[in-house]
Design goal:
Elements (H helix, E strand, L loop, with lengths): L1 H21 L15 E5 L16 E3 L5 E8 L5 E8 L17 E6 L6 E2 L6 E7 L2 E12 L13 E6 L2
Antiparallel strand pairs: 1-3, 2-8, 3-8, 4-7, 4-9, 5-6, 5-8
Amino acid sequence: MKKLQAVLAATLVFAAGSALAASTGNVPVVINANVAALAKLTIPAAISFASADPDVTPSIPATENPVAVRTQVRTGSASAVSLTVLAAGDLTNGTVTEDIGISAVTWTAAGNGFVAGTMDKTTAQSAGDWTGSGDRSSTFSYNLANSWSYAPGNYTATVNYVLSAP
């Protein structure tokens, strides 16, 4: 009788297991992700040029050279991405009437898609062009054309870099 109970118990367990295995559910799960367009630019907040003899140093390198530049963009795969720079005005000194034309400041660029140029206060200048999303890095090296005609003083100018992507 004990043998029959054991076989019967094993049969019930097996039958119950078979019934559970045969019961399956199919529940679809929808996963949503919101990925927005995004543009991020990392560039130093200031650069400076030391005074130098124009005969010895006709082009003064910025003391921070080379400076790291990084663009991070999330956009469509065929979308145009651009980095431009526009000066708010010439290099000015509050104590003298002479300015140093902003076009005296130039830069070179290293890195795929980044371009060298000359500062301008009228027309935004290209500093880089790409297609699609990406994390891109470069170094810019800035130079100031030196001249005997500059009046002594501390000069400043503001330039605005704009990273744009649709």
